[in-house]
Write a structure and sequence with these properties.
2 copies of one chain form a homodimer. Chain A is an alpha+beta fold. Chain A has helices spanning 13-28, 38-45, 49-61, 111-116, 163-174, 192-198; strands at residues 65-68, 72-75, 80-86, 99-107, 125-134, 137-147, 180-189, 205-215, 218-228, 232-237. Chain A folds into 2 domains: 13-75, Arc Repressor Mutant, subunit A (Orthogonal Bundle), CATH 1.10.10; 80-244, Chorismate lyase-like (Chorismate lyase), CATH 3.40.1410. In chain A, 25% of the residues lie in helices and 33% in strands. In chain A, β5 (125-134) and β6 form a beta hairpin. At the A-B interface, α4, β7, β8 and β10 of A face α4, β7, β8 and β10 of B. β10 of chain A pairs antiparallel with β7 of chain B. The structure holds a DNA duplex. Chains A, B: This is GntR family transcriptional regulator.
Chain lengths: 253, 253
DNA sequence: CAGTGGTCTAGACCACAAT
DNA sequence: TTGTGGTCTAGACCACTGT
């Protein structure tokens, strides 16, 4: 990476900088390599640190860089593809899918969740916490809402919370016949608790996947999962086929 | 919205500010309403304009606000759900789906696209441009790559480009038997041309949906569509059911 | 401890839309 | 021309990680 001077172009400095850095990442750096620190980089390009940071922010958003306070900025590996909408129509917790149930308790869900489920606004539901790990990295945190009516036989369980209870709820869910599921994906920012679980800072961009599981013509469960937007590529497929890879710059012809 | 003073809390000012503004949006503003300008807001909360802007940025990312240069900051309507992965297994361009084919030409695709398709690296493919409009707002811009082998009968077409040619490519595509499709969603930032088409600034956050269409055991077409991340909620479903709505704050129990 | 990225300030000027 | 959001600067200090 030379001491390139920025030309006077009709585009913002930080955007041009992003392009220059992007090319440098491809040609002069390898995955995991650590970049010079922000103060040095800014000086090298003759811009204020804030401007340099704006460029780095873009690249981090695009999954090209990873920044960690107290450590430095490193070149990120390509995004990992995580399957979220396979055609197998499987209940959460079926098979080995990388999810780990961590906790569960009976509580009153947020109003919008109660709406989507058929329960009354004050009816408590089972809330199952799960986290998903891929390649040793945490990629998602989920809250799964299960109305008591979906798992009537669970009354036998006496544990008020804990991982074992979470697994019990999931096990009971398998007994229902799954008729279908539908998901929605949108951009959000990590709440403090989610951020902690995903090893990111509060406010980090996440992809929020809301999935509704249908059985008996009703919504039998509702899942709200937040995925790290910087490291994940969510795959929805009905073929189980090969990975589709995306060019860092999505260059058009 | 009062002249609330920020308390000293162990969280960043901009994050606290985001929360305060978020609550104000729910209780004191209605959709489309215009907020006080940034300088006034910053003064009112006793912070620098840059800090106030950091909070607004978060809220815009979450689809709560819309900012337009020269105009102001307005309260955004709830995100619109746009279907991207229905179970009907339909080719692009089938039926009325909100897409509009605008142009098409024969050109050599980017290397990564050529990889996904089976074509050689230098083989030109049909590139179809489409844009998607919902509720009068542009929500997505797409590039559809179709190998010549997928539409052999198209050779009869002599127009080198144009909307009519684009429609012809799509029409030919319908004749193939679609075996399946698989999609991936990831976060990206709008290139200059995409940004123009989506009525946003360069670098605006977008959801990039890459879809592979399968026929005859091969990839018959590849679509790369960029959706406005601020206004869109992408839905993948196999039930055609009701909308799932998401609480502005995604409050956990 | 030294070094990193994260937050924050108080300004300045620019690009754009409406008047 | 006026007022808006967008860009940029040159600092300061904070929070965290490693040694």
């Amino acid at each position: 990476m030379g001491t390139t001077q920025l030309e006077t172009v009709p585009e913002p400095k930080y955007w041009h900088l992003r392009t220059v850095l992007s090319e440098a990442l491809e040609s002069e750096f390898s995955v995991g390599e650590i970049l010079p620190n922000e103060r040095d980089l800014a000086a090298r390009f003759g811009v204020a640190r804030a401007t340099l940071r704006q460029a780095l922010e873009q690249l981090e958003l695009e999954g090209r860089l990873q920044r960690r306070r107290g450590v430095g900025t490193t070149v990120a590996p390509p995004r990992v593809g995580v399957a979220v909408g396979t055609e197998q129509h499987a209940w959460p917790g079926a098979g080995e899918d990388g999810w780990q149930a961590t906790d569960s308790a009976l509580a009153v869900p947020p109003a919008t969740v109660a709406d989507a489920l058929v329960t009354g606004a004050e009816d408590p539901v089972h809330i199952v916490r799960r986290s998903r790990v891929t390649h040793g990295q945490p990629v998602a945190a989920e809250l799964l809402y299960v109305p008591q009516s979906s798992v009537p036989d669970l009354s036998a369980i006496d544990a008020p919370s804990g991982a074992a209870r979470a697994r019990a709820v999931l096990r009971e869910l398998q007994r229902l016949e799954l008729e279908g599921q539908e998901s929605a994906v949108e951009l959000g920012s990590a709440r403090a608790d989610e951020a902690r679980e995903l090893d990111r800072l509060t406010g980090a961009p996440v992809l929020v996947v809301t999935t509704r599981y249908l059985a008996h013509g009703r919504t039998a469960a509702l899942s709200v999962a937040t995925y790290r937007a910087d490291t994940c590529r969510l795959t929805f497929g009905d073929t189980g086929g090969v990975e589709i890879h995306q060019d860092p710059e999505r260059r058009a012809s």
